[in-house]
């Protein structure tokens, strides 16, 4: 019996010494322990611009629908007068450039999976300038002394919470558009609600341009038949939305602008 127990113990030790069974193979990835090989046929659709058909260069995503394209492809489409998403055709309003954001995560993924793209682009750009005899401008990097001398971007002043019209932070701003429901608005002056009431525009956008946008969305034949209000005050068409935020709204949260049919007094 003791001999049988010893044999069983030897068998258990042999089994524990065996290597673990191999993991099931993933057809999309192969590994040699140091590198991972990806099946690009299965990943191409994730990293490909639907406009040019190439891999993303300076990837930018439309905030309205979250579709991603090359920045240059998007700007070319906008310059040709197409103020919609090139893929799903969602309307991007009068300022489509303000509804796109640099997609850092997507671009970093492309650069990691395809590390040769950046180098290839730099070589092509250098060849382009060399063939035309154009001297490229060197990108100046600030010295340590210059970097230390720059003022901090974070201010503890309470006045800095509301950016001035000239500040870079005021270039883009988001706000909500809603029908006016104040007691001074009669039922005949009421207008319909927008399907997408939240918009993001350049802070320099004039109220007159905002009226044109509302007229298009609400099928009003004349933009001057629409009044835009902030806190019950009818806004002049020459005012910018950023000026309205700083002088009428005066809050840190998203601004609310109302609209209604214009009524002659």
TrEMBL record:
Pfam families: RAWUL, zf-C3HC4_2. The keyword Acetylation does not apply. Its main location: nucleus. Residues 1-35, 140-171 are annotated as: Disordered. InterPro entries: PcG_RING_finger, RAWUL, Znf_RING, Znf_RING/FYVE/PHD, Znf_RING_CS. Residues 151-170 have a biased composition (Low complexity). Transmembrane segments: none annotated. GO terms for cellular component: nucleus. This is RING-type domain-containing protein. It comes from Rhizochromulina marina.
């Amino acid at each position: 019996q003791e001999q049988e127990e010893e044999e069983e113990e030897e068998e258990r030790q042999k089994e524990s010494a065996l290597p673990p069974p191999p993991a099931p193979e993933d057809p999309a990835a192969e590994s040699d322990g140091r590198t991972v090989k990806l099946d690009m046929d299965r990943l191409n659709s994730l990293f490909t611009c639907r406009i040019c058909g190439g891999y993303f260069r300076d990837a930018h995503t439309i905030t309205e629908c979250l579709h991603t394209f090359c920045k240059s492809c998007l700007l070319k489409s906008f310059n040709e007068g197409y103020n919609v998403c090139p893929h799903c055709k969602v309307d991007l309003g009068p300022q489509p450039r303000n509804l796109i954001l640099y997609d850092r995560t997507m671009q970093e993924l492309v650069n990691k999976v395809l590390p040769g793209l950046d180098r290839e682009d730099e070589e092509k750009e250098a060849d382009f300038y060399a063939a035309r005899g154009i001297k490229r401008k060197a990108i100046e990097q600030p010295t340590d002394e210059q970097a230390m001398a720059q003022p901090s971007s974070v201010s503890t002043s309470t006045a800095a919470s509301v950016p001035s019209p000239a500040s870079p932070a005021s270039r883009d701003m988001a706000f909500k558009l809603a029908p006016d429901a104040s007691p001074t608005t009669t039922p005949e002056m009421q207008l319909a609600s927008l399907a997408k009431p939240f918009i993001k525009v350049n802070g320099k956008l004039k109220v007159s341009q905002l009226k044109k946008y509302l007229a298009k969305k609400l099928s009003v034949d004349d933009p001057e038949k629409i009044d835009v209000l902030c806190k019950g005050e009818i806004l002049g068409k020459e005012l910018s939305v950023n000026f309205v935020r700083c002088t009428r709204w005066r809050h840190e949260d998203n601004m609310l602008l109302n609209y209604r049919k214009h009524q002659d007094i």
